[in-house]
Description:
Chain B: This is Pyruvate dehydrogenase E1 component subunit beta. Chain B: Keywords: Oxidoreductase, Pyruvate, Thiamine pyrophosphate. Chain B: Its cofactor is thiamine diphosphate. The complex is a heterodimer. Chain A has helices spanning about 5, 10-35, 50-60, 75-80, 85-90, 125-140, 155-170, 195-200, 215-235, 260-270, 270-280, 285-310; strands at about 65-70, 115-120, 145-150, 175-180, 180-185, 185, 205-210, 235-240. By secondary structure, chain A is an alpha/beta fold. Chain A has one domain (about 5-320): Thiamin diphosphate (ThDP)-binding fold, Pyr/PP domains (Rossmann fold, 3-Layer(aba) Sandwich). In chain A, the strands form two sheets. A six-stranded parallel beta sheet of chain A has the order 2-1-3-4-8-7. In chain A, strands 5-6 form a two-stranded antiparallel sheet. In chain A, helix 2 crosses helix 4, helix 2 (about 10-35) crosses helix 12 and helix 6 (about 125-140) runs parallel beside helix 7. In chain A, about 50% of the residues are buried. By secondary structure, chain B is of the alpha/beta class. Chain B has two domains: about 5-185, Rossmann fold; about 195-325, 3-Layer(aba) Sandwich (Rossmann fold), CATH 3.40.50. In chain B, strands 3-2-4-5-7-6-12 form a seven-stranded mixed beta sheet, sandwiched between helices. In chain B, strands 9-11-10-13-14 form a five-stranded mixed beta sheet, with helices on both faces. Chain B starts with a strand and ends with a helix. Chains A and B meet through helix 6 and helix 7 of A and helix 3, helix 5 and helix 6 of B.
Amino acid sequence: MSKDTLEKFSQEKCLKLFYEMLRIRRFEEKSAELYSAGKIRGFLHLYNGEEAIAVGVMEMLRDEDSFIGTYREHGHALARGVSMKSIMAEMYGKVEGCSRGRGGSMHLYDKEKKFYGGNAIVGGHLPLAVGLGLADKMQNRDVVTACFFGDGAVAEGEFHESLNLAALWKLPVLFVCENNFYAMGTQISREESQVDLCAKASSYNVKSVAVDGMDILSVMEETQKAIDYITKNESPYFLEFQTYRFRAHSMFDAELYRDKKEVEEWKKKGPIVRFKKLLEEQKWLDEAKIKEMEKKIATEIQASIEFAENGHWEPISHLTKDVYCEEM
Amino acid sequence: MCAKKMTYRDALKEAISEAMRNDSRVFLMGEDVARYGGTYAVTKGLAKEFGEDRIRDTPLSESAFTGAGIGAALGGMRPIVEIMTVNFSLLALDQIINNAATIRHMSGGQFRIPLVIRMATGSGKQLAAQHSHSLEVMYAHVPGLKVICPATVEDARGMLQAALDDPNPVIMFEHVSLYNMSDEIEDNTKVDLKSAKIRRSGEDITLITFGGSLHKTLQAAEELAAQNIDCEVLDLRSLRPLDHDAILASIRKTHRAVVIEEGWRSFGVAAEIMALVMEKAFYELDAPIARACGVEVPIPYAKHLEDASVPQVPDIVAKVQEVLNSDV
Lengths: 328, 328
C-alpha cells in the first residue's frame, strides 16, 4: 500500500472505500451484539478483518456482473448495495428480509443485485459459478461471475472439478479465494500438502495471482487486471487474497486453535487501520471526518435494527410456498 | 395425427432434439454424450446437428457438471444434464439436494431452476453393485425436486417434453431394460408430471408400480388373468409428486393391493404407498397390502443372483395370490 498507488484514485473514491469497510465492520460488531441478545440466531460468521476484499472486488465489478459467496457474506452483500435493512431483517428471520427469513445470516440472496447467495456447503457453490459463467458465455453476455470462497474450499473436490471445467470451457469466472489461513479451526498447513494455492489453480491452467488481501488498493488493482484478463482471453482467473479473520469462526468458537498473539499481530495489519493511516498521511482523512462517518453508519445500523424489529413473521400458512415454482 | 414406431431411446432423442430446435436455451451435457454418442446411445448423432457447444462432453466430474447445470439454469439456460447411471449421481448428490432442491425456497422464491437431470437406473444387465441399483426413492424423498420414471415409449418422449417445459429441477429415471423397447406412438404425447396412469383396468386387486417393473407387472397380470384374477395395474410415472388420488381411487375400487419396485424394501416407495393407504383408506382394505421389492443386498453380478435380487414375474404372481388368500 503506497502513496503512489493512492494517487491513482481520487480522495472521494478513497473515502468511499474507507467508509464501506468501516460500515461493514460496524455492522458485524452490531450483529455480534444482537446475537448475544438473542435477536439473531442460527450460525453467525463475521467478516471482521477481511473487509478490503469484498469492498475492493465489488468496487471493480460492474452492475451486470454476477457474484456468489459463502456463509460469511454480509460484507459482500453490503458492499454490493444490498440494503442493510433487508440483511438485518433476514437475520431477524423476518419476511422483509432479503430471503424472506428462509435463509438467515448464511443465505442472503438478491436477484436484482445479481447475488446468487450465501452458500453454506463449503465448495458447493463453485460449480454454480461455473454454470453461471457457462450461461453467460452461451448467451454471449460480456460479463463476469465472481465466486468468493475460503481456503477451506480448496480441499473440496468441487474446487478442483470447477477450476478444471472453467479453464477447459474458457468461462468468464473470477475465482476469489479469501485465504484467512484457517478452515474453521484447522490451520492451512494442517490440511493442505501444498499451501501455495496459486500452484493448485495454475495446474488447471488458470491464471493465478496471490495478493495482500489486507490492502484494499492492491485488491482493486489486481481485481481490475483479472476482469480485463477474463474479458480479453475468455478464460477464468484465480485471485488468492491473503487475509485474516479477527473474530472467531462463528459465535460458537472458543478459538482454542490459535494464539491470541497471532490475532493481535494480524490486527495491526488490518485493512481499516492501514488504509486509515495512509489516508491520514495524505491529509485526506481526519478525526472529524471519521466521526462523521461513524455517526452516519450508526444511524443506518439503527434504522436497520428498527426495520427488522418492526418486520413481520411470514405466516406459517406460507411455509411451503416456493418449494416449487408454479408457473413458467 | 399419425402413429410411428420407435424405441424408448429414440423417443428420448426426439424430445431432446425437438426442444433444442425450438429453444436456443436448451442444451445437454454429460459424460460421453457428444463424440461417443451417449453410453446408452440416446444422444447419438445430436452433436452433428446441434454442435458440441450444445451437446457438450464433460470431464468425469459429476458434481461440477451437475452443479454447472444448476448454475446455468440460474443464469437463464434450460440445461439437460445426463448422468451415466444413478450410482454415479451420488457424486452429485450435494449439488442436487443442497443446491437444486433448496435455492428457490431458501432465497424466498427469487430464483427458478429449470433443469432436467436424466439418468439410467435399475438392474438386468449384469453390471453388479455399482451400476444396477434403483435409488429413485432417495431423490423422491426431497422436497424441491420432481422425480419421474417413464416406463413406456410414449412417456419417454411425453414426460421428457413436459420436464423440459417445467420451471423446476426434474430428475428423470430411465430403466436400462427399456432403451431397446419399441412401440407405436402418436405425434402428440405431451403429458403432465403428476398423474399416475392405469395401464390395465381390473376389479380384484391393484398392482402399483413404476419404471422397469411395469412390464413385469403387466406380464404377471396376464398370467393371473388366466387364473381368473382380474388385476388393475397402476403406473405411478411420477414419484414426486405422487398421485395420491389415483392410488386411493384404485384402492377404493379393488380393496387390495401389491406394490412392486426394484428398490430395496426398507423405507422404499412401497413403504410410502402402504403408509398413505393406511392413513387415507385403511377401512377400504380387504387385506393387508403386500410389497414385492428388491432384496436387501448389493446387487450381484451372476445372472441368477441378480435376477433373484429384484422382483420377477413369479414373485409378483405369488404376492398377489398371497394377498387374495389372506382376505379378512
